[in-house]
Predict the 3D structure of the following.
Amino acid sequence: GEDVEQSLFLSVREGDSSVINCTYTDSSSTYLYWYKQEPGAGLQLLTYIFSNMDMKQDQRLTVLLNKKDKHLSLRIADTQTGDSAIYFCAVRKSGGSYIPTFGRGTSLIVHP
Amino acid sequence: KAGVTQTPRYLIKTRGQQVTLSCSPISGHRSVSWYQQTPGQGLQFLFEYFSETQRNKGNFPGRFSGRQFSNSRSEMNVSTLELGDSALYLCASSLDPSSGNYEQYFGPGTRLTVT
């Protein structure tokens, strides 16, 4: 089945850009999502991209998709302490089972 | 519009007991999915209900079951609790998975501790 990999931790300084990476194995993945989970809370959908797109920008967030390498990244510009959280990448296909597969999450730590 | 609500938020149970968790989806959403989140296994899919029917099921033992009511509210039940069932149980709702994009909205979760 689908496998989604993320690095476990990322530490950045406030004001810098953060780049969280994700790789997946199934080239037929059509919808790719980024979720944010703050302590004690559920997952919040941040943004998503379709496989026919290379990039999507939404305010401070930029999603880049390299379909050939099956690599997805989330860039957060001007990272703030409030961005400290766990970020999950999730992918799913357009047909068949539409249940997304989640990565293990990347814990982003923003220090002053 | 109110978000996804889950009750209770915290629960402590003893091994061998059974537990029922509740989820109310966003108004108008007909699909409800359940996930188990643990530090060791990450986020694992339990099952998904749509219009009172279980449409998808993850790889969990039969001790884990669920149902959905006509108002789309959903419950999940875990019988004969084991220590390993200690986890954050998340519910997510969506309009209609077959409509294409499948944006799921998550509730805050129920933290279950089994002692």
Observations:
- The longest strand of chain B covers residues 42-50.
- The mean pLDDT of chain B is 93.
- Chain B touches chain A through 23 residues (CB under 8 Å).
